[in-house]
Description:
Elements: H1 25-34, E1 44-50, H2 56-68, E2 90-92, E3 105-109, H3 121-128, E4 163-169, H4 178-193, E5 198-203, H5 205-208, H6 210-214, H7 223-236, E6 243-245, H8 257-291
Parallel strand pairs: 1-3, 1-4, 4-5, 5-6
Antiparallel strand pairs: 2-3
Helix pairs in contact: 1-8, 2-8, 3-4
Amino acid sequence: MGGKKSKHPEPLPDKPWREINWNDKQRDLQYVKKYKPHIEDRQLRILLHGLSGAGKSSFINSVKSVLEGRICAVALVDNNFQNCFTKKYTTYKFEKRNRSTCYPFVFNDIMGLSKDKGVLVDDIKLALMGRVRDGYRFNPERNLSEGDQYYNTEVNPNDEVHVLVCVIPADKVSLINGEVTRKILEIRKAATELDIPQVAVITRIDQACPEIKDDLKNVYKSVYLKEKLEQFSADVGIPMNCIFPVKNYSKEINLNDDVDSLILNTLRHIIDFGDEFFNHKMSQSEGSYRYD
């Protein structure tokens, strides 16, 4: 009998399908550290949603780890794809080194999506509009409604979501069922109606492709990963240039430059999308003022 065939036998191409400068870590880090919204006292709110166990909380921890220069675990994590570990609407701020100020962006973590249980789409729609207060405990049977103590009746611009991030594990893309896809599409439609930019973060890339597990720098040479991203892009409509593969910190006890580079490159693009949204909203407001 012949030997067992490799899961991904295709040889890696010499030319990557997307360019990234692996030496740009410090430049991207300084960009993130120096970022300030054009509008004074504004805060960029980034909402993460996606499958249960996809790595939303791990991505938050990974971002904080890169910014802090050490492994951090501010958001509790569970790798069980069957259970929704995150139960409450939680805002995560990132303190700067002097601890007296915070970065002008925050992440919101929510309960994961699933076929039968998980977060309700209507709750995500309310979060996009800034209607959900911190600490709200998601109920898969009933959505938040006006009059509830966690329903935000007075919304200021910092409560609203400015970037929507869909988090999907690379090794589970083929297993996403039609109902979850429908929910993602419905969430995307609601965000689009609010002009909120949308990106996807693809996690667990090292678990999906052995060539990437061997060397993270193969991420943009992997034909297999590119096919998975193209499949996801076709299913939910997020353009390929708005989809970013990352490896979250999970088993590591020390930072790794290649992991940092992908995290920072992704974070920089998310910030840029949010900044464009700020500028678009500001120009709309100024235009309305002139017409009045």
